[in-house]
């Protein structure tokens, strides 16, 4: 169906895509998106799609926010590029650093700018190593993240990630990066175990891992407040308290990856606020510019910064930084984006509309295909099963594994298949009527599939 000189044919001729079967793509081709409006995007034929994943969890203000375009244009004219190496700076990055420190949910002091979530997490690992050297604890370099976590794809950040597909074929994880169990109660909770007991078990497992490795070798623990790409894993209410107690006992740093949760997603400015998380470093990206520009940042407290400052005084300057880090155009967009989020009360909107969305989605929980509906604020997932009692995963090819593609093709909804779950993460600017439209589309597809699944389910 690809025309010889079409965009699709040219894409197939020239592009290798991430997370795309490179072989079958040669036949199927891409979905080419041309423009956007609010939570919708449009393909080359003018067909409209509801972007229920906000791009990749990232476009908070929707796809045509003029004020962001104007902020970019103005900065392009004033100073299109400058860097922050060797004690140089520029207004937009100075203002943005100040803004991030002010917004942070705990006392923070400094910001280091990077270009992507992966680079930011990679950079945190470098800062931690540099800090441990500064403290005269060179053996303290191990970090712990969680199975099912997603922290990026560079060699080091992919090691932090706890998903097999990101390790397999790359000889990862790196040896100093360890994984402990995720707070996925639906999948990992033992029969008859309460959520509270499950959280206690996860904290005890973490404690045991630290003991086994030697507490003086563990520098930091990495975690997302709510895990996104691993399947929208909402932790039990007391999980973070219990984890933080263990970390405190051994004086281990806590790094919060707020790449998805940050700037309103969970109904608070930061996911850390939702769970009382008190991190030493916070990683932000994506929604900081509504993804209109690649920009990420690490917000640091003095516990991180002071030894780094000592080390750069003693040994030499921090030998790490990215040419485009804190880019003036990206920083100007971020400042305008954060201003709009505050002016329009979008965090409160995300809390209110998110509550409404969670309620509407939970009405689907009685559907025979839906094992669990989970989420908080404007992020949610439907866990799909063939057998509710046995929690038989519905990822069987040809069964309901294709639900995301059916939503796309039949209802014009872009969602995401993640293992056995469907993720929903609409832009913050979505309206109540648009949530109704989205939930009706999901419900419609689930009902269409009832018959098919009945045939596949063993009697
Ligand atoms: N951390 C989290 C929590 C993420 O969701 C992502 C991207 N989905 C990353 C890090 C990596 O960000 P990037 O793709 O910009 O490298």
Automatic annotation (TrEMBL):
<dbReference type="GO" id="GO:0008483">
    <property type="term" value="F:transaminase activity"/>
</dbReference>
<protein>
    <submittedName>
        <fullName>Aspartate aminotransferase family protein</fullName>
    </submittedName>
</protein>
<dbReference type="Pfam" id="PF00202">
    <property type="entry name" value="Aminotran_3"/>
</dbReference>
<dbReference type="InterPro" id="IPR005814">
    <property type="entry name" value="Aminotrans_3"/>
</dbReference>
<comment type="similarity">
    <text>Belongs to the class-III pyridoxal-phosphate-dependent aminotransferase family.</text>
</comment>
<dbReference type="InterPro" id="IPR015422">
    <property type="entry name" value="PyrdxlP-dep_Trfase_small"/>
</dbReference>
<dbReference type="InterPro" id="IPR049704">
    <property type="entry name" value="Aminotrans_3_PPA_site"/>
</dbReference>
<dbReference type="InterPro" id="IPR015421">
    <property type="entry name" value="PyrdxlP-dep_Trfase_major"/>
</dbReference>
<dbReference type="InterPro" id="IPR015424">
    <property type="entry name" value="PyrdxlP-dep_Trfase"/>
</dbReference>
<keyword id="KW-0808">Transferase</keyword>
<keyword id="KW-0032">Aminotransferase</keyword>
<keyword id="KW-0663">Pyridoxal phosphate</keyword>
């Amino acid at each position: 169906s690809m025309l010889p000189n079409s965009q699709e044919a040219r894409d197939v001729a020239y592009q290798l895509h991430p997370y795309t079967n490179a072989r079958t793509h040669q036949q199927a081709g891409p979905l080419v998106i041309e423009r956007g409006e609010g939570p919708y995007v449009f393909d080359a034929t003018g067909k409209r799609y509801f972007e229920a994943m906000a791009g990749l969890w990232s476009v908070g203000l929707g796809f045509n926010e003029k004020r962001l375009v104007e902020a970019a244009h103005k900065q392009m004219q004033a100073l299109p590029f400058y860097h922050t190496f060797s004690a140089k700076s520029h207004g937009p990055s100075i203002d943005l650093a100040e803004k991030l420190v002010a917004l942070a949910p705990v006392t923070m002091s400094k910001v280091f700018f990077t270009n992507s979530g992966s680079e930011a997490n990679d950079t945190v690992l470098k800062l931690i190593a540099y800090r441990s050297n500064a403290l005269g604890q060179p053996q303290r370099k191990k970090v712990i993240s969680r199975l099912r976590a997603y922290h990026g794809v560079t060699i080091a950040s992919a090691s932090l990630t706890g998903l097999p597909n990101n390790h397999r074929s790359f000889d990862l994880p790196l040896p100093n990066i360890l994984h402990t169990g995720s707070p996925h109660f639906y999948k990992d909770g033992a029969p008859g175990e309460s959520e509270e007991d499950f959280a206690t078990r996860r904290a005890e497992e973490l404690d045991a891992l630290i003991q086994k490795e030697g507490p003086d070798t563990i520098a930091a623990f990495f975690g997302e407040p709510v895990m996104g790409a691993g399947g929208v894993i909402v932790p039990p209410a007391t999980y973070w308290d219990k984890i933080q107690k263990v970390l405190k006992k051994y004086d281990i740093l806590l790094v919060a990856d707020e790449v998805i949760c940050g700037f309103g997603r969970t109904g608070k400015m930061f996911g850390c606020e939702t769970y009382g998380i008190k991190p030493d470093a916070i990683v932000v990206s994506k929604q900081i510019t509504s993804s209109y520009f690649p920009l990420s940042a690490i917000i640091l407290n003095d516990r991180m910064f002071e030894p780094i400052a000592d080390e750069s005084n003693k040994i030499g300057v921090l030998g790490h930084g990215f040419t485009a880090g804190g880019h003036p155009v990206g920083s100007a967009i971020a400042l305008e984006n954060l201003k709009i989020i505050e002016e329009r009360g979008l965090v409160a909107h995300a809390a209110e509309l998110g509550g409404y969305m969670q309620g509407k989605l939970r009405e689907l929980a009685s559907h025979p295909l839906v094992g669990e509906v989970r989420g908080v604020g404007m992020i949610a997932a439907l866990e799909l099963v063939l057998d509710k009692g046995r929690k038989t995963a519905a990822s069987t090819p040809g069964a309901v594994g294709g639900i995301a593609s059916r939503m796309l093709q039949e209802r014009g909804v872009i969602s995401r298949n993640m293992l056995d779950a469907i993720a929903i993460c609409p832009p913050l600017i979505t309206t109540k009527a648009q949530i109704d439209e989205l939930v009706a589309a999901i419900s419609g597809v689930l009902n269409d599939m009832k018959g098919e699944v009945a045939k596949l389910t063993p009697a």
